[in-house]
Specification:
The protein has 602 residues and is α/β, with parallel strands linked by helices. The chain folds into three domains: 245 residues, Spore Coat Polysaccharide Biosynthesis Protein SpsA, Chain A, CATH 3.90.550.10; 73 residues; 243 residues, Glycoside hydrolase/deacetylase (TIM Barrel). Helices cover 42% and strands 15% of the residues. The chain has 22 helices and 18 strands. The strands form three sheets. Strands 1-4-3-2-5-8-7-9-6 form a nine-stranded mixed β-sheet. Strands 10, 11, 12, 13, 14, 17 and 18 form a seven-stranded mixed β-sheet that branches. α16 links the parallel β12 and β13. α11 runs antiparallel to α12 and α21 packs across α22. The protein starts with 21 loop residues before the first strand and ends with a helix. The protein binds zinc ion. Zinc ion binds next to β12.
């Protein structure tokens, strides 16, 4: 036992006060299993279930046969089922306490979190409602905890009692082909059979319910896996076995393929550095995706017609002796893949983009000062511009998505656009609070770290305007606007000598650190003006990338320390805004041509 002793939790065997929606079922008198051997961790088994009365009852019966010396409690969360699951469960005799929680349908993540919140034992073992347990399952998990594990995953082969036919057979092949080998990745973490120390589960904040909200399905496991694998001892135990009774019907299988898209898109946004891996596991690099599904997913209506036909063919086929027919299986899985890629295209994530539009705004306010008005966009018009971009299919990306695109080739959705704001005027905090944060739009604010007001403009006669305080900058960061550097004094860096350039680049990092702010990742040259020395100074100071003001979209191969950014001025309204954002280089060419024609004939 390696000297580890697990204290028996007193709550585990105590009956709590009756509570709405929770029923307790007594252990059989004299069974004695509710009090366990303290050398083994006590385990709370949490099973969320939805509309699967017979299967979950069968799963509970297999759990009742578990050979485990430690204490066990079973918590079943009925997630809005209307098929009499609660009554059926009440009729099952079990050697350990069963708790049944009934809640309105809230998705698997919410149901698991609810069950975990009620769990009282050392370890929580999450099992899906279709898992038929091997008698040694709990012992295998328990063994790893005696050995110091923080979390354990096992094996989930398809149960031989699954309904016959190509669906269960192909899932069985898929499960066998994706068996864990080598170091664990977040994508190996499968909540169908996953145990974790209860204290760690609480510390990690449980499953992200946003990933499975609405119609989204899946990816909460990998998301939890990211946090789990970051700094904890996660074991794969090939002897911890539960058999998945695969009862999913063709229609549900097809729906899941489409519902996975909403979860994948959220996951890709939340974990940009895993996005490529996620879509590669779905086969985005395969020739069939590129040459067949990609063109077909463009055709309106066709994919959903095919999917509907495939579901009906599969339903009919599964009732006949053709139920294992390979052609039927291929047609069905192909139609489901097409449904997935079509839904992904609709979401804007297929195919990926390789160019980013970075917009540079200054003040967002009504400005009377003639010198400043040129750079100010009134907030109403700014909102219209956001709507206009969204309507035209642009996707607002986060600074971290942008960073991962530069760093590690992370995929980006269609027409990606990153918002940036220069100079750090005080009203930006209201803009973030009232307009950007409610729309879940993130961005970057480039701050002049050594000034309290716009001294550089005042030198030309502009009125003074306050810049944000360190406290305001912290709040800005919390609202999703990353604080970055716009130098210390807003001087023209290409006119400076090396030591002055160093002071601007490295000095502003110190200024922000002194204010208790995180180290800035990005830099923007004042006036977009830079030269080789300025770029070197910024690179040496440890910035990840720096922006100039070349009027074009950023793409692979752009100079990382002079990234292009498209400036939006007061005069860029209506068709000008649309043209400038649709084709910035072309627009720039047009403006220059007009200007030179004007000087030729004017
Ligand atoms: Zn500036």
């Amino acid at each position: 036992m390696a000297g580890t002793t697990f204290t028996q939790s007193t709550r585990a065997s105590t009956k709590p006060a009756p509570e709405a929606g929770i029923a307790w079922q007594e252990a059989e008198p004299g069974s004695g299993a509710a009090v366990g051997d303290p050398n083994w961790p006590s385990i709370s088994v949490v099973v969320p279930t939805y509309q699967r009365r017979d299967v979950v009852c069968e799963a509970v019966r297999t759990l009742g046969r578990a050979d485990y010396p430690g204490a066990i409690e079973l918590i079943i969360v009925i997630d809005g089922s209307t098929d009499g699951t609660a009554d059926a469960l009440a009729a099952i005799a079990c050697p350990f306490p069963i708790r049944v929680i009934v809640q309105q349908n809230a998705g698997a993540s919410a149901a698991r979190n609810r069950g975990a919140a009620e769990a009282a034992n050392d370890v929580i073992l999450f099992l899906d409602d279709d898992m038929m347990c091997d008698p040694n399952l709990l012992r295998e998990h328990g063994r790893n905890y005696c050995d110091g594990a923080d979390a354990v995953i096992g094996e989930t082969p398809v149960d031989l009692g699954s309904p016959a036919g190509f669906l269960a057979e192909s899932v069985a092949r898929w499960t066998a082909s994706t068996r864990v080998q080598g170091p664990l990745s977040p994508f190996d973490i499968f909540t169908g059979q996953l145990s974790v120390r209860r204290s760690l589960f609480d510390e990690l904040g449980g499953f992200d319910t946003a990933l499975t909200s609405g119609s989204a399905f899946g990816s909460e496991d990998a998301d939890f896996g990211v946090r789990l694998l970051a700094a904890h001892d996660v074991r794969h135990n090939a002897s911890a076995i539960s058999f998945q009774r695969y009862v999913v019907k063709p229609r549900e299988y097809r729906n899941r393929a489409e519902r996975a898209v909403a979860a994948h898109v959220q996951f890709a946004r939340k974990h940009p550095y895993l996005a490529r891996d996620l879509f590669e596991r779905r086969g985005i690099g395969r020739p069939v995706v590129r040459w067949l599904y990609r063109p077909l997913s463009r055709i309106p209506v066709f994919p959903s017609l095919i999917a509907g036909l495939a579901v009906r063919t599969a339903e009919a086929g599964l009732r006949t002796s053709l139920r294992s027919n390979r052609a039927l299986a291929r047609f069905f899985s192909g139609a489901c893949s097409l449904a997935y890629w079509t839904a992904l295209r609709k979401s804007g994530w297929f195919p990926f983009s390789n160019k980013v539009l970075v917009l540079c705004y200054h003040a967002i306010r009504d400005e009377a000062d003639p010198l400043l008005a040129r750079f100010s966009v009134p907030s109403k018009r700014f909102e219209q511009q956001l709507n206009d971009l969204a309507d035209r299919g642009f996707t607002f990306i986060t600074p971290t998505q942008f960073k991962t695109f530069i760093d590690s080739d992370a995929p980006l959705p269609r027409r990606p656009v990153l918002l940036t704001f220069d100079d750090g005027y005080a009203e930006l905090i209201d803009l973030a609070r009232e307009i950007l944060h409610p729309r879940k739009i993130e961005g970057i604010a480039f701050i002049v770290t050594g000034a309290a007001s716009n001294e550089w403009d005042q030198a030309y006669g502009a009125r003074p305007i306050d810049l944000m305080s360190h406290e305001q900058l912290k709040e800005l960061g919390a609202l999703g606007i990353e604080v970055a550097s716009h130098s210390r004094t807003h001087g023209e860096m290409q006119l400076m000598d090396q030591s002055e350039q160093e002071a601007e680049a490295a000095g502003s990092i110190h200024d922000l650190a002194r204010g208790g702010l995180p180290r800035p990742r990005f830099f923007a040259y004042p006036y977009g003006a830079t030269n080789r020395g300025a770029r070197a100074a910024v690179s040496r100071a440890g910035y990840l990338a720096a922006f100039g003001l070349k009027q074009s979209r950023m793409q692979r191969g752009s100079d990382r320390f002079d990234l292009p950014r498209v400036i939006i001025l007061a005069k860029d309204r209506g068709w000008k805004f649309r043209a400038k954002t649709a084709a910035p280089s072309l627009f720039n060419l047009f403006v220059r041509a007009r200007r030179s024609l004007g000087s030729m004939f004017g």
